[in-house]
Every structure is written in C-alpha cells, then in structure tokens.
Design goal:
Layout: H1 2-22, E1 26-28, E2 35-41, E3 47-53, E4 57-63, E5 71-73, E6 81-86, E7 92-96, E8 101-104, E9 112-113, E10 121-127, E11 133-138, E12 145-150, E13 158-159, E14 168-173, E15 179-183, E16 188-191, E17 199-201, E18 212-213, E19 220-223, E20 226-232, E21 240-254, E22 260-265, E23 268-272, E24 280-283, E25 289-293, E26 300-304, E27 309-312, H2 322-328, E28 331-334, E29 341-346, E30 351-357, E31 363-371, E32 373-377, E33 384-392, E34 396-403
C-alpha cells in the first residue's frame, strides 16, 4: 500500500512539474493598473502597449529589453487608447476613443495628435506600406461604422464608408490591395483595391467579431466570441466555423497556418497546432486579456486588465492534458481540414473501432476493423466539424476534423 501511495505521489509530482514547466507564460512588471488594450513588438526586444482610463489619461508603455522594464511615455490625451502599430523602428501610430489618432516619429519619445475628422471610436489600424494606412471603428451612440484611409503618412484621412449600422473592431490586409474589416453582428467587409471600396461578405453568424488575423495569404481566422472562430483557407473567399473551448474571445494571433493562440473568458490562453481542429489550455492567468502578439514563433506577449503583461519565450510551453497527449500522439488524421476523404492512422496499435458524430451528436459513421490505417469518406455528409472516437487495442482517442 505504501509503495502504491509513493508511486501515486511521484506520478502526480511529475505531472505537476510538467504542467508548470511547460505552461510558461511569465508575468512582467508594468507599473500601471490601467487596462491595456493592445500590444505590438517591432522585434523580440522593442515593443509598445497602450490603454488607459477614459477621461483621465491615455497610457503608452515601451520596452527595449524584451519586457524586463516598461517605461511610460506621455500620450498627451485623456482618451483611452485602443490599438498600436509601427511602420518602422521610429514611426508608429496609436488609435483611441473619440476619434483619437497619435503618431510618433522618434520611437515614442514624443507623440503628437493627428486630425481624424471624426469623434467615432477608432479601434484598429493597419498600414499597407509606410504611407498608406487604414483605420476602422464606429460610434457607440449611433452604431455607425467608419473606415478611414490615409495615403500621406497620416497627415490627412478620408472616410471610405458611411451609413453602415455596425461598429468595426479589427482590420487586416494580406497585401497592398486585399483586406478585411470585421465588427459587431457578424460583419465582414472586404476590399480588393487597397481600401478605396468595401463590400459586405456573408459570415453566416450574428456573433460579434473582435479580431482578424491572416498568417499567410490563404489562411485567415476571425474570432466570434461565442466558442467559435471563423476560418478561411482560400484567401477569404469562403469562411467556415471551427469550435474553440473559450468564449468572449478578445484577440487571436497565428504564427503559422496551423499554430495559433486565442485569449478570452474564462480568463484563459488556448493554443492550437493543427489549424484549430483541437485547442489546449496554456494558462489560467486570472485576468481578462485584450491583446496577444508574437514577434516570432517562440516569443509572445499578452496584455489585459489591471496593467497585466505576460510573456512567453517558448511558444507558451506545451502542456496539454496528460491522457490527451498520450492518446492523441498515437492517432493521425490526414489531411485535416479535409474535402471529404481522409485517413486515420494509429502509430502504435491496431485500430479496433471508429465512431464519427456531427455537431448535433448524430452518428454518421461507424466501423470495426483490425488495421493501423483506414480511409474515411465523408463526402456524402454536410460540411462542418466532426468528432471522431478511435479505439485501439489499449487506448481511446477523441479527435476533431474539419470538412470544408
């Protein structure tokens, strides 16, 4: 009995150590309790985060040593700041509430206001090159959206749309012509001429969107804030839904087409390494995060309420559930996502039984076999997400596959 207890405690200690060692998001000292809304790094060492308290002050912090120290910079505004981006080591832009746009030409040593021509809240900014930039936002009073464009480094801004009832929250371009703006009520705008003209795209949902990101020209993700993301694999022509284990998603970031991160409620960071087919918790860090950014594949930063800043230097670590890790490493689905035909392969043991169900819990496929490789055909089923239970000689695995 004592030997069994000793083995149990030793096993638990090893698992606990693995969880702590691998889930490496480390809190940094910011010297502020203001809510931080956006973070951006020019490189692994030099970065900025912005936020503030509405009607009191806008907050800008800068680090030049990878977040070891964060130094406050004078913003000169009482508006809360919402988003920060730089076009070079010295030139950067910040958006904020009440039509606020700030610019620096000296690495944040000083910031000066730009004339936006609006009192709408400005939520996100993207520069196509050093001269041309797009800002999106909206009015919380009238509920109307706004898209502003500059072609002269922010000296002047022109409105691109009017009369649209939504608030736009995020904008992203994959090249100098093609871009998307997303917002509340499932709104997706697309441009193919550098932001001069915008057309609405169907999203298939009325969920509120708060973040859009493209790791490459074909693969893109939109957070839906309701246990779902939208994903495209054809350059934004079509979007399909994938599930995520958190709600209230505030920010997403993908370092590749398959590897990405999302932050949301309950306060958590989740990671995928298979394009959103599965997600694993990395950190229950006890705060609501608003922004995530990775200057490279390994180094990432999170910012949120109460001045909280977290950093990872190893892609957030690799902790996933012990049983899930043990089982899922034995089962490979390929390709995933799929157009209907795919294989299930067991790396170690023969597959004995396969069960596939849809999102409604309806079983659409079942088979008994004695092989390590089997081909599945779902082409007669509706497109969407399917759950796969694979039983081998000595283990059970649960996987997800996306059929598009």
């Amino acid at each position: 009995m004592k030997q069994k207890l000793y083995k149990y405690h030793l096993t638990f200690a090893i698992i606990l150590y693995s969880m702590v060692a691998n889930a490496q998001w480390v809190q940094q000292t910011s010297d502020t309790t203001d809510a931080l809304q956006s973070v951006y790094f020019i490189n692994a060492d030099t970065g900025y985060t912005v936020g503030g308290i509405y009607g009191i002050h806008g907050t800008i912090l800068k680090t030049t040593n990878g977040g070891i120290n964060w130094i406050g910079q004078p913003s000169g505004t009482i508006s809360e700041l919402t988003f920060v981006r730089f076009t070079s080591i010295d030139t950067g832009y910040v958006t904020g509430l009440d039509g606020t746009i700030l610019k620096t030409n000296n690495g944040g040593a000083s910031w000066h206001p730009l004339v936006s021509g609006t009192t709408f809240d400005l939520n996100s900014i993207f520069f196509l090159n050093s001269s041309t930039g797009i800002i999106v936002g909206g009015s919380p009073m009238s509920g109307q959206a706004i898209i502003l464009k500059t072609t002269d480094r922010g000296a002047s801004w022109t409105s691109q749309i009017s009369g649209i009832q939504t608030i736009l929250t995020s904008v992203y371009f994959t090249d100098t012509l093609k871009g998307w703006a997303v917002g509340l009520y499932g709104t997706i705008f697309k441009t193919i001429d550098g932001g001069n003209n915008w057309t609405l795209q169907p999203s298939g949902t009325t969920d509120n969107f708060f973040s859009i990101h493209f790791p490459d020209s074909n693969t893109g993700y939109i957070d839906c804030g309701n246990y779902n993301l939208l994903k495209t694999i054809d350059g934004g022509s079509n979007w399909f839904s994938i599930s995520i284990p958190i709600t209230g998603t505030h920010s997403i970031y993908f370092t590749s087409a398959d590897t990405g991160y999302a932050v949301g409620s309950p306060p958590a960071i989740v990671k995928t390494i298979d394009g959103g087919a599965t997600w694993h918790n990395q950190c229950m860090c006890g705060t609501n995060f608003h922004s995530i950014f990775f200057p490279n594949a390994n180094t990432g930063y999170l910012v949120g309420d109460n001045g909280k800043i977290f950093k990872t230097s190893n892609s957030g670590g690799g902790y996933i559930g012990i049983q899930e890790l043990e089982n899922n490493n034995q089962i490979i689905l390929s390709p995933n996502p799929t157009t209907g035909l795919f294989t299930i392969q067991s790396e170690k043991n023969k597959i004995e039984q396969i069960k596939i169900t849809n999102l409604l819990g309806e079983r659409v496929y079942q088979a008994t076999t004695e092989t390590i490789l089997i081909t599945i055909d779902l082409t007669n089923q509706p497109k969407g997400i399917y759950f796969i239970e694979v039983n081998t000689e000595n283990s059970n695995s649960n996987k997800k596959i996306i059929f598009y």
